[in-house]
Each structure stands twice: as C-alpha cells, then as structure tokens.
Write a structure and sequence with these properties.
Number of helices: 3
Length: about 110
C-alpha cells in the first residue's frame, strides 16, 4: 500500500472549527507563508488533534508573538482542555486572565 492517500477537501474542517473557535480559519487556497503566527499555531494544533489522543502537548506558546493574539491562543487551548489534557510549555507566565490551569515550575526544584 502507498504511504499516501487521497482525502476529501473538507477533511479536518470539524477539527479546525473546534480549534479556531471564533477566529476565522485560513482559506483553503492560502499559502503557509501567508498565515499569521496565530493562524499557523492553531493550524498545527488542528493537525495534532486529528489523532484523537487523550493528551495534547504544546511547546513554545511564545511563537505567537503578539500578546493579544497569544491570549487568543491560550483561550483556544483552554477550550480544548475541556475535552482532553493539554500540557503547554511556556517561558512567560500565562497571566491572570488565562483559563483555569495548574503551574508546574521546575525552577524551584533546582533543575
């Protein structure tokens, strides 16, 4: 069997709607280089959620550079956390407006 398969154009649309929420997803004809940092981040999350795993691990939240757009990304991850466990690696604190979360700061452990 070949390593590739034809899939319908609308495949993954449900996951993108779930991940993007109120943020408009990129158009099907958009090139990757045309996407904003937030759109690219949410697209990667959409692809990751297609595996239907019970845990989503996200690194480098700071790749979404703008604080306002990063807050949207955090909100979208918070929405996904109602359906599965979401682990996010961050350098900077999420802030007081972030969804309910637990902080595991390993710097205090001397690591």
């Amino acid at each position: 069997a070949p390593w590739y398969a034809q899939i319908p154009r609308e495949a993954g649309q449900t996951k993108m709607t779930e991940v993007f929420g109120d943020t408009p997803p990129p158009s099907p004809g958009a090139y990757i280089v045309e996407l904003s940092d937030l759109e690219l981040f949410l697209l990667r999350i959409s692809l990751a959620t297609m595996s239907d795993r019970p845990i989503l691990v996200v690194g480098d939240l700071e790749q979404v550079r703008d604080n306002a757009r990063r807050a949207i990304a955090v909100d979208r991850l918070g929405a996904l956390a109602t359906q599965c466990t979401v682990v996010v690696g961050v350098t900077n604190p999420l802030g007081t407006d972030a969804p309910t979360h637990e902080l595991h700061d390993h710097r205090a452990e001397g690591d």
